[in-house]
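Sample entry (84 residues):
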Amino acid sequence: MSMKRTNVYADPEDLAIIKEAAKRRGISEAEIIRQGIHLAAMANRVWDEPLFSRTFEGTGRTPSKDDVRGAVADAVQRETGTAA
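Predicted structure, serialized as tokens:
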């Protein structure tokens, strides 16, 4: 993967934390900054398709723990043919 050099302004306290983390983890400060840039890029990415494309029928209320456990148990039973 080719990389492009860029300049950014950073808070001195953040840079000190990065320096300490790089030393502790045994990697370069640049690697930590690249990881941070990647996380920021992915957090702000606009996806072509929605994460969830299926819709589910429901009651319009938040399910209780028992509702969720029952739904999971039913799904396991359907998938495996056994009681959960």
